[in-house]
Amino acid sequence: MIRFSALMCLILSAALTASGCGGDEHPAEHPSAAMSGTKLEGDFTGSGPGTLIEADTLPAVDRRLQDVTSLAARITYTSTSGINDSHPQVTGTVFVPKGNPPEAGWPMIAFGHPPTGILPECAPSLSPTLLDSVTTVAALVSAGYVVTVSDYQGLGRNETYHPYLDSTTVGYNLIDSVRAARKFVPNTSDRWAALGASQGGQAAWAANELVDNAGGGLHLVGTVSVSPIADVDGLADAAAAGALTRDQQLMLQAYLASLAAEYSDFDVDQYRRGIVQEKWDVLSACEGSAREQRVKVADQITADELRPSGPEAVEILRGFLQKTTLPQGPTAAPMLVIYGGQDPLIPPAWTDRALDRACNLGDVIQIQLQPEKRGPDIDLPTVIGWINARFNGDPAPDDCEIFIAEHVSPRDGG
User: Fold this and answer.
1) What is the CA radius of gyration of the chain?
2) Which one of 322, 344, 376 terminates a domain?
3) Could you report the per-residue pLDDT of 189-246, keeping only the tens digit for each?
4) DSSP secondary structure string, 172-220?
5) pTM greater than the 0.85 cutoff
6) Do 253 and 297 fall into the same domain?
7) Do 79 and 36 belong to one domain?
8) Is 51 a domain residue?
């Protein structure tokens, strides 16, 4: 069922997008120029997480997806906020392969996209190329999967905000996209996997932790997280020390903007000054000329301009980061985690800490650290076989015993 060459294209594309942050690498397209189509039929009954609210065609979707899909749609569905347990409406896309489904129904993949921004217009579903995820998604569809791509809460709709870095929210968003897609594409299997890069790797990992209580009876066979945003506690100390990389500066700015939207009593001015404060809205941009200006502003940020105002501000920031740091609990299915030793966004010591805790929770994880690689250029030679084996029900490799022995209390460093 799974065509290996197509999956290799998929995985390499996921790696290439892993370090995207807020649209710097996106082509010059206006997201709102995407795809307002006609209404489609579906099962719109029920309520609560996973409920399908609306489905529309995507007439302007990129040719690479048109060529491999029998149906492409933008959906709206109900999900769950990890911040306040509310049930916001979330948008996303669903892509169905050509041909007839297998006897057991189409297997499903929830793809977690890398960071695209924090504003409503930063949604992949509003872009013909899915904001650079088109190659990945087209390869998955070609390999015989129904693919869902959640925009994540707050992207694609302006009724709420995007809780950037909140692992629980994006985890729910992936799970509920699969549940909603099954109400739109009835000839699907109850078996699915999740795959994501960077923020999407965080979403896939979190979905694996949440699925037992939120999966709606579906069977998760495994998750792949490439360069995941997992342990982010170190972001507070790096900001205080003036040691943030450029990628981390942009990540922190987006996170602070989200915190300001989430909590009315959060004083964002304790964390910004200079050009960061002056060009705050520009730094949040993901389209048009402001996106180009964002790159120029980002190159001018100094260490002091994102430094917390004092020890109390550092502790407040650390407390918020700990609420989203992974793991939050044990996973339900095997994981494959791949990360680079030269990642400018998430240092390997941070990922080591997350993996150490996850292994001690009893998770089954195949771990691949590629020491010379950055986030965007990680090689993924074993992912094809790993995904195929999970759908075939083969025993999953587990590197945790060796990893724990080699990483005794990896809290220091990074």
Assistant:
1) 20
2) 322
3) 999 999 999 999 999 999 999 999 987 889 999 999 999 999 999 999 999 999 999 9
4) HHHHHHHHHHHHHSSSEEEEEEEEEETHHHHHHHHHHHHHHHHSTT-EE
5) yes
6) yes
7) yes
8) yes
